[in-house]
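Table S2 (text version). Query chain:
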Amino acid sequence: MSKNRGVVYIGPGKVEVQDIADPKFEAPNGKKIDHAVILKVLSTNICGSDQHMVRGRTTAPAGLVLGHEITGEVIEKGADVEMLDIGDIVSVPFNVACGRCRCCREQDTGVCLTVNPSRAGGAYGYVDMGGWVGGQARYVMVPYADFNLLKFPDRDRAREKIRDLTMLSDILPTGFHAAVNAKVGVGSTVYVAGAGPVGLAAAASAQILGAAVVMVGDFNAERLAHAAKHGFVPIDLSKSDRLGEMIAEVIGTDEVDSAIDAVGFEARGHSGGEQPATVLNQMMQIARPAGHIGIPGLYVTEDPGAVDDAAKHGSLSIRFGLGWAKAQSLHTGQTPTLRYNRQLMQAIWHDRLPIADIVNAKIIPLDQAVAGYATFDKGAAVKYVLDPHGDLLAA
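Corresponding structure-token output:
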């Protein structure tokens, strides 16, 4: 193994690509583990969730190696790994999950009970998620490998489809989970708040689930234009604060069957200022009585940069009484990636879901990650895929 390098969080507004330690068969607490593999990272993506940390909107510590969207090749394996071989190409769910606890056994791998001493749920390279080293790097260790990793059936086909398959680690299952929990089905009318990568993944998921019309709302003209190119109806939120009326112009009524919040806690209103609950309240307004709301957008328990003291601790002024009165269902939380990634792999494998084009995936070298973070933070209509070894760009 050659020298490892990775994307390191330095402090608010700053990341660097640095030399980092080579991965070991070792848990964050220092315990030796035999159920892990070490991967040569083939692709690793910049996520909007990473941006929250980089903006200083979490309690992430300096020195954290970022990255939870990982696809790689097995180059070493522990003695307890039975189902994987050296050379296998695999997708890594962003959830770190043991496969043994009650939640994992019930396929709720996003809230594994054993991999994080501070709360339920673990993830790579993320604040308060157990201390697992991130994968925006050349090499990374993955624990509980037999349970966590999704092996691709053919190496050559996997490399050919890597630009799409890299989305299986997070944003595609996250978008699909949101659409499933919003009860999207054949003939559904759907509104997605946010035309970023997760919003577009949710919109694409709604399409393959049979939605009749999928609307995507945003203030960003470039992102809306890209959404329109892929068959979604753009809703330009800069034109009006009357979302229901804009929806009615499309479908003839101001309410939808399914609403999806792909924005999260850094939402902004028409005043230009931050209004962290505004999208949640809009979702309850536009979802029909007995409608369903999926919430893949991130909400945090601690936000040092919040607009008020309540929001600093994740307390938001939502119109819960409206949602109750309309008998709506709301579903939140991290996506249990393993529940969906195999089926979604099949859709990609057989050319049913061109997700890389839908989210506008762009491959860049690992050493350009700093520039990628800066451009993505400005609202670029792109999903950056890092190429740590130069293999993808060479191909």
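Notes on Table S2: The mean pLDDT is 96. Residues 5-170+336-394 form a domain with the Quinone Oxidoreductase; Chain A, domain 1 fold (CATH 3.90.180.10).
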